[in-house]
Write a structure and sequence with these properties.
Number of helices of chain A: 12
Subcellular location (chain C): Cell membrane
Radius of gyration of chain A: 22 Å
Organism (chain C): Mesorhizobium huakuii
Largest sheet of chain A: none
Oligomer: heterotrimer
Chains: A mainly alpha, B alpha/beta, C mainly alpha
Structural class of chain A: mainly alpha
InterPro entries (chain C): BPD_transp_1_N, MetI-like, MetI-like_sf
Order of helices and strands of chain A: HHHHHHHHHHHH
Shape of chain A: elongated
Distance between the termini of chain A: 16 Å
Number of domains of chain A: 1
Largest sheet of chain C: none
Order of helices and strands of chain C: HHHHHHHHHHHH
Number of helices of chain C: 12
Strand content of chain A: under 5%
CATH topology of chain A: MetI-like fold
Radius of gyration of chain C: 24 Å
Number of strands of chain C: 0
Structural class of chain C: mainly alpha
Keywords (chain C): Cell membrane, Membrane, Transmembrane, Transmembrane helix, Transport
Family (chain C): Belongs to the binding-protein-dependent transport system permease family.
Helix content of chain A: over 70%
Largest interface: A-C, 44 and 49 residues
Strand content of chain C: under 5%
Number of strands of chain A: 0
CATH architecture of chain A: Orthogonal Bundle
Chain lengths: ~280, ~260, ~325
């Protein structure tokens, strides 16, 4: 049974894929469905949802269209989630491969540095980084990656430690390949699968961290973010709780979709590799 | 000579990756009360499946046809109480984070209704019976602190803690060193005699079987191909496979074995 | 026992080294900020160029980076974290004032998430594949996906605004002069919602780990052997399967402490709890870099200490540790 069929037979994985597709759809359609600035005033302030069908989800404190903000917020969450995860996986793979392959002092030093990054709570680190350099999308991505690269690094290192004793590495050495070349052309590609298995967890964590940073006011001020929307809604929590609740539901569904789809992919491809 | 257990036409099928694999085919066999019966075969012969089937430990995914009767008691046997089971590898058949004494005591407590202190006292007695050095400290030792042979003695003690009528040893010596194997075989023989238990000894080692058993059953590919007393099997095997098994056993003790069978090296 | 002590000493030396890297790294990071504490101070209080220079000199901010780093490290050895610009008090005092609240929050939340999480995990893992197992599996995944700060707000809306059972925030009723048990009860009531918010997020983690651990333990041969000895299902599940599945969770406790400290930043912010997390947010807002540095350092020390304690606890619980075997 090929992996796709197996994936389609797992209800949780399919549900996750549907959620993810919805999210990606929202992100892509946003500029088409809601052209113009989503932060522009669209109507009267604090309009409840389902009253005016041109503003189906109502408006916020300043009269901005909640639905437009919701759709545009999906772009930010998706972009940051994927970019931060990619950066964390890239940094982690490189550091882990170097440490595992080189061994000795390089390994010791790199592992102590990894320990240091793991000792500081990643959110505090992200907080400090964003506050030092200034909030913008790229900085937020870097800040999140700074806190999450250590997991992939450890996994990559563990894989490399077992791979480097294998025959094809020895023969590459015998041919006279430069160690760095061996490390990144032979070893790293084979060490990747377990690292990539972590990617859904990292993407999910990145999306949640970005939301938390935006909630605290450290997100990119020029972009609509779900975290920012929740923070805005906090001021009118008593009178208009939906302003904070709706973006939160979007976050939960997004992260859930990432988890389920990601776990589904890992399960179906892992079985194919003959792991049991 | 009454039968402890009567196996009628037993067939066991495992399901693996959507395929049905027949591990046992139409086995009919009686286990006589008080006897020492060895079941011999190579891997895949179904001998372990037979042991699990008698004990009622088959996985849920297996399909069972035929029946096993227990004429002596009339009811199906209780695990631990009526049947003691000793597994092959004592380093994985004991819980690594529980003391050895507690693992024996909990069996006594479950089946004999003893208090914990009574159960621990019984555990100590059992450790003495299986000849474990320094039973007092052994009670509080963890499995990883004991050697392979010592661990297997503990496993045997736990198996007989509730005084079962039938002891099943499934390749109980295969994971041990040769000298230790002989000690464990001697231990099993002594315990079975002392308590009047029936012994079902599963092994791939025919020489071990001939030392321990009164009757030998030879299995191949899930079928019972020969059954007889030890003397019969060794001197006049009727099946070519049995003869091949005997011949294949070449060892330092081959001469006495062959002499006993009336043949010469 | 001596082997354990040798291990401990090696860990301590390693930890000091790691903390050193943390200090230097964070110091250099915060140095990269455009503008410093003086700029932030001037913005709020006003002053001319002469004033700026005077303040810089007074606060030692006109010296070279390396000199300042050296001075900082030297001060650290005397447990002096410097002066906070925002509060005009020694940073150590400010931190020590707020630390107990965060510790209280974290310990309670950990107790909730670990206790309830592993109990539910055992309940689910006792019958793998059953309806309750699948329900708890999906449910915990959904909980895992919930942002902590949002959960906090939802809890506030339900329990503090709509039902009015619990207070909206803070750690105790202000100016109430309660003492002893009364005060403890007051604090406890204020902490119910924040602890619930922080605890429920990580509950999902322990639930899933315990469930996975149980599934793994069920496959072990000693479980079949325990069944072969005729032990009751309940005993097999609790005394053998769960006990073995618990060990990796203990290790997780240590790893989670760092994440929970980070999580406490938003929770304390949502519930206005005067703890270390909230202090970090205030430091960021005020660009009080020495304070932020002090908080990060304190958090790192806290994480190291917690991990050490967890390792000691683990050594107690897993008899294979220190025996030269591959224990965990």
């Amino acid at each position: 049974m090929n992996p796709l069929r197996r994936f389609l037979r797992t209800p949780e994985a399919v549900a996750g894929a549907i959620l993810l597709a919805a999210l990606i759809g929202m992100a892509l359609i946003a500029p088409l469905l809601f052209p113009g600035d989503p932060q522009a005033i669209a109507g009267p302030a604090l309009l409840p949802p389902f009253q005016d069908w041109s503003l189906p989800l109502g408006t916020d404190r300043l009269g901005r269209d909640v639905q437009a903000e919701l759709f545009h917020g999906a772009r930010t969450s998706l972009a940051v989630g994927l970019a931060a995860a990619a950066a964390a996986l890239a940094i982690g793979s490189v550091v882990g491969t170097l440490a595992g392959f080189a061994g000795g002092l390089v390994d010791e030093v790199l592992m102590r540095v990894t320990d240091a990054f793991q000792t500081v709570p990643s959110f505090l680190l992200a907080l400090a980084f964003v506050s030092v350099v200034g909030p913008s999308l790229g900085i937020v991505v870097a800040a999140i990656a700074l806190g999450t690269w250590t997991g992939p690094a450890r996994i990559a290192r563990a894989e490399v430690l077992s791979i480097r004793e294998r025959d094809y590495v020895a023969s590459a050495r015998a041919i006279g390949m430069h160690p760095l070349e061996i490390a990144f052309r032979e070893v790293l590609p084979n060490a990747l699968p377990p690292v990539l298995a972590m990617s859904s967890v990292i993407v999910a964590a990145a999306i949640l961290t970005e939301a938390a940073l935006s909630f605290l006011g450290l997100g990119d001020p020029n972009r609509v973010t779900w975290g920012g929307m929740i923070a805005e809604g906090r001021a009118v929590l008593r009178t208009a709780p939906f302003l904070s609740i709706v973006p939160g539901i979007a976050l939960v569904l997004t992260v859930l979709g990432v988890y389920l789809a990601g776990e589904g992919i890992v399960e179906t491809t892992a079985v194919r590799r003959g792991l049991s | 000579m009454s039968a402890l257990a009567s196996i009628h036409d037993l067939t066991v099928t495992y399901r693996r990756d959507g395929n049905a694999v027949a591990a046992l085919r139409n086995i009919s066999l009686d286990i006589v009360a008080g006897e020492r019966l060895a079941v011999i075969g190579e891997s895949g012969s179904g001998k372990s499946t037979l042991a699990l089937a008698i004990a009622g430990l088959l996985p849920a995914s297996s399909a069972v046809c035929g029946r096993i009767e227990w004429p002596g008691s009339g009811r199906p046997p209780l695990l631990g109480r009526d049947i003691g089971f000793v597994f092959q590898d004592p380093s994985v058949s004991l819980d690594p984070v529980m003391t050895v004494g507690k693992q024996i005591a909990e069996v006594a407590r479950t089946h004999l209704g003893l208090t914990w202190s009574q159960a621990y006292a019984k555990a100590k007695t059992l450790l003495e019976r299986v000849r474990l050095p320094d039973p007092d400290s052994a009670l509080h030792a963890f499995p990883h602190q004991l050697s392979g042979g010592q661990k297997q003695r503990v496993a045997i003690a736990a198996a007989i803690a509730a005084g079962p009528k039938l002891l099943i040893a499934d390749e109980a010596t295969s994971a041990l060193d040769t000298i230790v194997q002989a000690e464990i075989v001697a231990l099993i023989r002594r315990l079975v005699a002392e308590d009047g238990m029936t012994l079902l000894f599963i092994s791939h080692d025919i020489a071990l079987a001939t030392e321990l058993a009164e009757r030998i059953a030879v299995f191949r590919h899930g079928q019972l191909i020969e059954l007889g007393t030890t003397a019969q099997i060794v001197s006049t095997p009727s099946q070519p496979y049995t003869r091949a098994l005997l011949d294949a056993h070449i060892g330092l003790d081959a001469a006495p074995l062959l002499n006993r069978a009336g043949l010469h090296a | 026992m001596t082997r354990a002590l040798i291990l401990l000493r090696r860990r301590l030396v390693g930890s000091v080294f790691v903390l050193l890297i943390v200090v230097i790294g964070t110091f250099l990071l915060l140095e990269a900020a455009p503008g410093d504490a003086v700029d932030a101070y001037i913005v709020s209080t006003g002053g001319d160029a002469g004033m700026i220079e005077l303040l810089r000199h007074r606060w030692g901010l006109d010296q070279s980076e390396l000199t300042r780093l050296a001075n900082y490290l030297w001060a650290l050895l005397h447990l002096d974290l410097g002066q906070s610009v925002t509060f005009s008090r020694p940073i150590r005092d400010v931190i020590l004032e707020r630390l107990p609240n965060t510790l209280l929050l974290m310990v309670s939340a950990t107790a909730l998430s670990f206790g309830l999480g592993s109990a539910l995990g055992i309940y689910a893992g006792a019958r793998p594949g059953s309806a309750r197992d699948r329900f708890l599996s999906i449910g915990s995944l959904a909980l895992y996906a919930v942002p902590g700060f949002w959960l906090g707000l939802v809890l506030i809306v339900i329990f503090a605004v709509d039902l009015r059972w619990l207070p909206i925030g803070g750690i105790e009723t202000l100016a109430s002069d309660k003492t002893g048990l009364d005060r403890a009860a007051d604090i406890a009531i204020h902490l119910i919602l924040p602890v619930a918010a922080l605890g429920f997020i990580y509950l999902a983690l322990y639930l899933r780990m315990m469930r996975a651990g149980m599934a793994e333990a069920w496959r072990q041969d000693f479980v079949l052997a325990a069944r072969a000895r005729g032990l009751s299902r309940r005993r097999v599940v609790l005394a053998h399967v769960a006990r073995n599945a618990l060990l990796p969770l203990i290790t997780m406790l240590g790893l989670q402490s760092a994440q929970m400290l980070g999580g406490s930043v938003v929770i304390e912010s949502v519930f206005s709890v005067p703890g270390l997390g909230r202090l970090a947010q205030e430091a960021v807002a005020a660009r009080d870099t020495p304070l932020l540095l002090g908080i990060i350092l304190t958090s790192a020390v806290l994480v190291v200490v917690i991990n050490l304690l967890v390792d000691i606890a683990y050594a107690f619980l897993d008899p294979r540790v220190g025996a030269g075997e591959a224990g965990a």
